[in-house]
TrEMBL record, chain A:
InterPro entries: CTU1-like_ATP-bd, Rossmann-like_a/b/a_fold, TilS/TtcA_N. Plays a central role in 2-thiolation of mcm(5)S(2)U at tRNA wobble positions of tRNA(Lys), tRNA(Glu) and tRNA(Gln). Directly binds tRNAs and probably acts by catalyzing adenylation of tRNAs, an intermediate required for 2-thiolation. It is unclear whether it acts as a sulfurtransferase that transfers sulfur from thiocarboxylated URM1 onto the uridine of tRNAs at wobble position. This is tRNA(Ile)-lysidine/2-thiocytidine synthase N-terminal domain-containing protein. GO terms for molecular function: transferase activity; tRNA binding. One of its GO terms (cellular component) is cytosolic tRNA wobble base thiouridylase complex. GO terms for biological process: tRNA wobble position uridine thiolation. It comes from Oryctolagus cuniculus (Rabbit). Keywords: Cytoplasm, RNA-binding, Transferase, tRNA processing, tRNA-binding. Residues 54-237 form the tRNA(Ile)-lysidine/2-thiocytidine synthase N-terminal domain.
TrEMBL record, chain B:
The lineage of its organism: Eukaryota, Metazoa, Chordata, Craniata, Vertebrata. One of its GO terms (molecular function) is sulfur carrier activity. One of its GO terms (biological process) is tRNA wobble uridine modification. Acts as a sulfur carrier required for 2-thiolation of mcm(5)S(2)U at tRNA wobble positions of cytosolic tRNA(Lys), tRNA(Glu) and tRNA(Gln). Serves as sulfur donor in tRNA 2-thiolation reaction by being thiocarboxylated (-COSH) at its C-terminus by MOCS3. The sulfur is then transferred to tRNA to form 2-thiolation of mcm(5)S(2)U. Also acts as a ubiquitin-like protein (UBL) that is covalently conjugated via an isopeptide bond to lysine residues of target proteins such as MOCS3, ATPBD3, CTU2, USP15 and CAS. Gene3D superfamilies: 3.10.20.30. This is Ubiquitin-related modifier 1. The modification 1-thioglycine is found at residue 101. It comes from Oryctolagus cuniculus (Rabbit). There is a cross-link at residue 101 (Glycyl lysine isopeptide (Gly-Lys) (interchain with K-? in acceptor proteins)).
Amino acid sequence: MPAPPCASCGKARAALRRPRSGQALCGACFCTAFEAEVLRTVLAGRLLPPGAVVAVGASGGKDSTVLAHVLRALAPRLGLTLHLVAVDEGIGGYRDAALAAVRRQAARWELPLTIVAYADLFGGWTMDAVARSTAGSGRSRSCCTFCGVLRRRALEEGARRVGATHIVTGHNADDMAETVLMNFLRGDAARLARGGGLGSRGEGGALPRCRPLQLASQKEVVLYAHFRRLDYFSEECVYAPEAFRGHARDLLKRLEAARPSVVLDLVHSAERLALAPAARPTAPRCLLPLRAVCVQPREDLWTGSSGLPSGVTPQRWCPPTPGLSWCLCYGGAVDSDLGRTAEPAWIMIAHLAAPALGRWSRECTCPAHVGPPLPTSQILC
Amino acid sequence: MAAPLSVEVEFGGGAELLFDGVKKHQVTLPGQEEPWDIRNLLVWIKKNLLKERPELFIQGDSVRPGILVLVNDADWELLGELDYQLQDQDNILFISTLHGG
């Protein structure tokens, strides 16, 4: 049986049925509708005001490729200046190929590209080094948890370098739904409470972030890329099989087969959540200033079981720039998993990452910490 | 009795990795009793094209959730999914959505 005619133009054959409206559209009309919805999302949420300089988190993958393409089309209408910011986590056999795709895109779209590398920002710590450090540490610790935190910082740094006023990332509705599931499964009340809404205003001096594709289903993102013939990188990160998100993703996919609206329903449920008073996260505890610790890194931590990647030497650093503090750890779940165990690799990353950006780390468990706790100020997670 | 069919089977979005990295396959399906539909095309693909890890492509008698199927650039949902009967010179594209973006 042939496909019905397009409900919009009536001329071409329909190529797909939109999940929410059930409308059958041809490829061209679908792309137009998709772009119109992103525009509506941005305008209705006042996400990107005219004159904004927008750092687009670009990984070479399908979501950030579609995001950059759509924003580039909408930029004149919205009065935006776009910069691509790519993060090089230092994952061999994966990130180089992805960055090659980003470079091709930057050239094709004539957009400036800035690449920020973990190795430069975090004192030689690539994800490969982190993975080696965290492998086999008793509980199956996923290096992906570290990556998420460090990538946010790297993206922030890249955005500042290009003078951006806003950061956008390509998270789609499926990503949001997976995150909701993960937060439930890990009992992460703090994140559940924070999760809703289209973007964060940017607390503690961080740049405001938003996700213009947040209401677009993953399937539609892929179909948009297909109909617009966009070139993207489609391999899985070599560490992805270890990531906890995979469980949430599998569950979501199976649920979707039984109930197609589950993705958007989950996202909307999370937006409407109110936490019981007893569950509300307590105010973050005291901050320990790095300067009290990090002038003299402890040798036994550096040469512990984690070892140092070759070519990286322990560094001394100046006291961090006084200013706003921010939380390096990932929040409640990671705190309980990692923050209290004084694991050498984690402490090392905490010490290395924070001074690089002139900020403090929260709840550092390094036994070498000296100095009185400070009262809390704004925390950015 | 179905006559032999010549179709193009394509893989994208990373699915090609299960097929030796080859994206486009010109395929001649042999004549057989029942008409060729997507359901028995999948069986044929599993037997003749799939190089590794069938569970990443096929689940039960359908594709793994997260793999999109387009026939002549149209979502198979519009065409009857597994029951769509293949025509000569059809293009069947399988796109994986199962990776980060």
